[in-house]
Amino acid sequence: MAAIYSLYIINKSGGLIFYKDCGTKGRMDTNDSLRVASLWHSMHAISQQLSPVNGCTGIELLEADTFDLHCFQSLPGTKFFVVCEPGTPHMESLLRYIYELYTDYVLKNPFYEI
């Protein structure tokens, strides 16, 4: 069975909103998770600018030997990304579902400021 190692939610300016570590090995401390989130935000922004394809929205999948990183960027610019085992199926639909849950929760919070 495929495993999800961690889930990140980043706001449009690169700040870490949410982080959940689901893996049992290689847990990161708070500073490392902040570094990963800001690094991914920067790489995503640079890839949008350097892409030869017009309308490119950035990196959606990063494949490595030991993990895959799937990313979904919403229209307001919030990024949702998950680090999982290589070859894990249906991560795009999972990220869209997490986005739906997030927006449902945030929009019902009367104290949330956009």
TrEMBL record:
It is found in: Endoplasmic reticulum; Golgi apparatus, cis-Golgi network; Golgi apparatus. Gene3D superfamilies: 3.30.450.70. It comes from Camelina sativa (False flax). The keyword Iron does not apply. Its main location: endoplasmic reticulum. The keyword Signal does not apply. InterPro entries: Longin-like_dom_sf, TRAPPC. Part of the multisubunit transport protein particle (TRAPP) complex. PANTHER family: TRAFFICKING PROTEIN PARTICLE COMPLEX SUBUNIT (PTHR23249), TRAFFICKING PROTEIN PARTICLE COMPLEX SUBUNIT 4 (PTHR23249:SF15). Keywords: Endoplasmic reticulum, ER-Golgi transport, Golgi apparatus, Transport. This is Trafficking protein particle complex subunit. Belongs to the TRAPP small subunits family. TRAPPC4 subfamily. SUPFAM superfamilies: SNARE-like (SSF64356). The gene is LOC104774521.
